[in-house]
Amino acid sequence: MTKTWAVFHDRNARLFLTAVTVSGFGTSALWLVSGVWVKDLTGSDGLAALCMLAMWAPTLAGPLLGALADRVPRKPLLIGGSLLMAALLPVLFAVDSPDRVWLVLTVLFVYGAAGVVHDAAESALVAGAVVPSLLGGFNGLRMAITEGMKLLAPLAGAGLYAVQGGPGVALLDATTFALAALLYAGLRVRETRPDPLAPPTSTGRGDEQSGHTPVGAGARHIWAHPILRPLVLAGGTTMLFAGLNGALIYAVIDGLGHSPAYAGALYAAQGAGSVAVGLVSGPALRRLGERRFAAYGIALTAVAAGLRAIPSDPLALACSAAIGAGLPCVLIAALTAVQRETPDALLGRAVATAHALVYTPNVLGLAAGAALVELVDQRPLSALLGVAWLATAVPLFQRPASASRIASRSPSDANPA
Description:
mainly alpha, 17 helices, 0% strand, globular
């Protein structure tokens, strides 16, 4: 834990985390309110659901969008992206009738695309601006802050929406982006200015001559790397199962005999678990390494998901907290490994590609779970899900020591430049 708090002694880390706190508050508030706003204007559940889709859809173009973080200086990119959203969000002041809902969806789509670029640029810049030994602790604290905002900001956003409506929440989010831009401006980083006319750094296999697009270099680097490939694959599989598990939540609540509002208690318990693991992830990563840290987290999540088959209030709350603690482990481990094992010139594309590979399956899992829960009873479905999910952890416990040692000594061995 001491090492985790050492992150706050690093000036750049403090600024990054403060910016994450500020902008994350506004984002979480808008995340809740946008769907409610559209539902109130149109009465349509489908259009309200499109708000979430609009924000997530740009993730599919992650490798392409992430390339910007390798072609443009990252600090100006963070500042410019934040100022762009601060200027764009007030457009939502014009939304006052159902026929202008398209403005909400358009702004949310741009919001999602800017978020993909922002995450790639931030993760790449952090890798060079924060002491390498603090990366695990930094990513854990970032996760803790993000999950903490999800517990607090939606309530604040709902209250502000009740008083000022959607435009009031949009103004709040625009203000947080402007403040984040000021914080990013205070970063002390030294970047090598990329040449926008030169082709991006290849993976050393003659991308230009072989006809491979440089945008795909991040995916090839991850696939060829003995540390990154299993972690990213495990992350994607975990998020697929997380989507399935999330789709079962209201069936779980029905089995407990509660109203749908009980989901708030389960989500709060899950958020508390995520905050807790974020605070201890730095020391845990140093002690266990990325693979075992991810494997233990997946195992904890799988067992908890399977135990949801047993109808018990205390057990349901405990399982939610355990899922909240276990689920982020593979995400933190994968991001930290990508930051450590990827050459700087390729880092933006690698981070964006990893995010796309990890988070896209969550949408597929949600869709599949929504269909399955209508056909199969929740209890056997949860039990089977737990067993299948547990199998995901097995390859991570079987660490190929020699390959990992070689890769950790020289990240460029798996991706020569």
